[in-house]
Amino acid sequence: MNKTAETSWNGVFILAEQFAGRVLPVSFELLRRGRELADTCGTTLSAMIFGHEICRDGLQELIDCGADRVVATEAAELEHFLVEPYAACMLDVVEQYHPDIILAAATTTGRTLMPYVAVKLHAGLTADCTELAIEADSGNLLQIRPAIGGNILATIKTPDHRPQMATVRPHSTRPAERVDGRSGEIVCQAAPADRLAGRVEHLEFIADDSPHHLEDADVVVVVGRGIKKGENVSVGAELAEALDAALGASREVVDRGWLTYPHQIGLSGKTVTPRLYVGLGVSGSIQHLAGMQTSETIVAVNTDADAQIFQVADIGIVGDLFEIAPALTAALRQVKQDNSTTK
């Protein structure tokens, strides 16, 4: 909507997410972002959430971790994400509260819902932001994201329309922490029946049967084009198993069909922030680094001493991954065996 309209736009809203009634961790990452912006603007921070029988303890936790208000819209039809009923309910919340800023995570939900709503509102939207700030003179939201293949950081603003909307990469910041004694307003409302219609029907949910979810893993082993062929993915998979780690991949590995897209890390894949990242034959393109450079400890193995990955690595090993990775795997398995024997 045009900013010059008579409507007064105020406050920061985040889109909290839930699954099976449980508030998802990415919601608390957004609270940290939103709290910083709200404090800078001297305004309130609210969280909107849509679902069915959402856990009340989860709603209170949103307050405890920084929200001044939580608006929960519930209906059986909102149990699973469907863009049309979610968008209709979100538009109602925007009409009710007129937020100046709306933030969502760049998840499947956020990447689908936010563009749909932005079009309905004739508002601007910046996707996949890695940083957010408030412009000192105007109070506009500065939306910062990688552009041109990750070679530059673009700062985008939408000064003429409200609300200002942005999606933020998951795991690009730490979750907000609980603050004892915080109080706030929790508004639970039933979704109007006429907002729940849609052309898409939810049939079933098929769970990911991977032992580790890449985005949430504490340890990640990543294979790059240095593995040379698809059959050699097993070298990384065996090390991942020995480390009790998730298995990731560079874009080229996925493009070649050696691993599937859910394994991809980088600008066009997932962002990870594990305690330990181990890269095998990963060159370290800017696009890949954008998805993993916030890892606490980065170990890289590559035959090319000039590989870009070594610029961000805490431990760099110039050598043949086909010798080093199996040796590491064997050593880890031996340690596990020794530990089980002594118990």
UniProtKB/TrEMBL annotation:
Q: Name one GO biological process term.
A: fatty acid beta-oxidation using acyl-CoA dehydrogenase
Chain residue ranges for the region called Disordered: 163-182
Entry-linked CDD domains:
ETF_alpha
Ranges for domain Electron transfer flavoprotein alpha/beta-subunit N-terminal: 12-200
Q: Which family does it belong to?
A: Belongs to the ETF alpha-subunit/FixB family.
**InterPro entries (UniProt xref):** DHS-like_NAD/FAD-binding_dom, ETF_a/b_N, ETF_a/FixB, ETF_alpha_N, ETF_asu_C, Rossmann-like_a/b/a_fold
User: What species was this sequence derived from?
Assistant: marine sediment metagenome
- Descriptive protein name: Electron transfer flavoprotein alpha/beta-subunit N-terminal domain-containing protein
Q: Which Pfam families match?
A: ETF, ETF_alpha
As one GO molecular function, the record gives: flavin adenine dinucleotide binding
